[in-house]
Amino acid sequence: MRRRSQWLGIVWLAAVWVLLWGDLTWGNVLAGLVLGAVVTWGLRMVAVDFHGRVHPWRVLVLLARFAVDVVRASIEVATIALTPGYTPRGAVIGVQLRSHSDLYLTLTAELVSLVPGSLVVEAHRLTGMLYLHVLDLDRSGGVEAVRADVLAQEERLLRALASPQEQAAAGMVPA
User: Fold this and answer.
1) Among candidates 61, 81, 17, 45, which has minimal Cα distance to 161?
2) What is the pLDDT of residues 137-159, one digit of tens each?
3) What pLDDT is recorded for position 3?
4) pLDDT for 54 beyond 80
5) Is pLDDT at 170 greater than 60 in this prediction?
6) What span, in angstroms and rounded, lies between the C-alpha atoms of 65 and 149?
7) Phi then psi dihedrals of residue 129, to 5 deg
8) For the chain, domain boundaries
9) Which long-range contacts link 126-132 to residues 24+ away (Cβ below 8 Å)?
10) Under DSSP, is residue 65 helix (H, G, I), strand (E, B) or coil?
């Protein structure tokens, strides 16, 4: 199984390489496969423990809400940028996540950072604490609203990918 996943990773990295170059040629495919093999076999990574299972409907809900958040936040950031004389009041906010899994901490941090107007500046692995910079605290609804948004994002992620045991460990009632 491990060899199969390594080969899938190499093929995936090669596909990304070809997409980055924007030209499907034998040279790009070969270079992508070689580079993927070097990255996969040369840079040993710690295996990520995934004990959950994918819940397709919940993944769809997660992605749909993420898309809505990105569009809404993009409009807010554009409004801030185009409003003459407006000075946003930024802040760094700490959010204590419920899950203590490295995988869910990383995925939550990535989802939060991909939404315009917020950026994770630090993640404490041992405590499960995320510190994020918010562009405009007033338009985001204040400190507690930002924390609630991040925790809701984490909950959608856990509902989409976590096992019932992981959900219960995070203090959630398993679906």
Assistant:
1) 61
2) 999 999 999 999 999 999 999 99
3) 65
4) yes
5) yes
6) 11
7) -100, 130
8) 2-42, 56-169
9) 127/96, 128/96, 128/97, 128/98, 128/99, 128/100, 129/94, 129/95, 129/96, 129/97, 130/94, 130/95, 130/97, 130/105, 131/92, 131/93, 131/94, 131/95, 132/92, 132/93, 132/95
10) helix
